[in-house]
Design brief:
This protein has about 210 residues and is of the alpha/beta class. It is built from six helices and nine strands, in the order βαβαβαβαβαββαββ. Helix content is about 35%, strand content about 25%. The model has no long low-confidence stretch (mean pLDDT about 95). 5-O-phosphono-beta-D-ribofuranosylamine binds next to α1 and α6.
């Protein structure tokens, strides 16, 4: 399975994929390219450390939104990938890409969708909202990307306890370590092994 991994920040979810591939826990999977929406993303350094092609493509470098969107599509097409993985990617994926790669784009969201998701719920904000609401369980979700924001068919979820003295940073770290870094590689594995079926927007795992 050939992957394009789209990132925006620290790249710890990318690192989880790299580690599982290098430890042969994730076989028949290759990251062909890492594309960052920000030049400063540490995720780019992580990719380069392992010799994975990495480019930064930010909207600011393009005259119009359309030019950026077509350039991003061309870059993804160039690598002839089977799956696009959004790993800590803050970019709303353009419609032309969502359509061309229907059910071949997955995203990791640091909450149990449909809770604490949608525009504006990203990074620490998600965990701040979780603490403000006082929920006792949160977690992460891997889902297929459709035209909406965090609205596509859910593939995997993993719950994480919220503890009394949690800060948003502590909670984010626990959700990453105990949920994100586990279910994102697991979802890629299920797709590599062709174990997923989608019926009426519900994902089922073949036995
Ligand atoms: C994580 O909380 C992730 O869930 C969210 O962005 C944050 C950073 O992810 N999507 P990463 O370390 O860049 O993978």
């Amino acid at each position: 399975l050939k992957l394009a991994v789209l990132v925006s920040g620290g790249g710890t979810n990318l690192q989880a994929l790299i580690d599982q591939i290098n430890q042969k826990k994730l076989t028949d999977v290759k990251i062909e390219v890492v594309i960052s929406s920000s030049k400063k993303a540490y995720a780019i350094e992580r990719a380069r450390h392992y010799g994975i092609p990495a480019t930064a493509m930010s909207k600011k470098d393009y005259e119009t939104k359309e030019q950026f969107e077509h350039a991003l599509l061309e870059e993804i097409d160039r690598y002839q990938v089977d799956l696009v993985v959004l790993a800590g990617c803050l970019l709303m994926i353009p419609e032309i890409i969502v359509r061309k790669y229907k059910n071949r784009i997955i995203n990791i969201h640091p909450a149990l969708i449909p809770s604490f998701c949608g525009a504006g719920y990203y990074g620490l904000k998600v965990h701040e909202a979780v603490l403000d609401r006082g929920v006792k369980v949160t977690g992460a979700t891997v889902h297929f990307v459709d035209e909406g924001c965090d609205t596509g068919p859910i593939i995997l979820q993993k719950a994480v306890n919220v503890l009394d003295n949690d800060t948003a940073e502590i909670l984010q770290r626990r959700v990453m370590e105990q949920a994100e870094w586990i279910i994102l590689p697991e979802a890629v594995r299920l797709i590599a092994e062709n174990k997923l079926m989608i019926e009426d927007n519900i994902v089922k795992i073949k036995k």
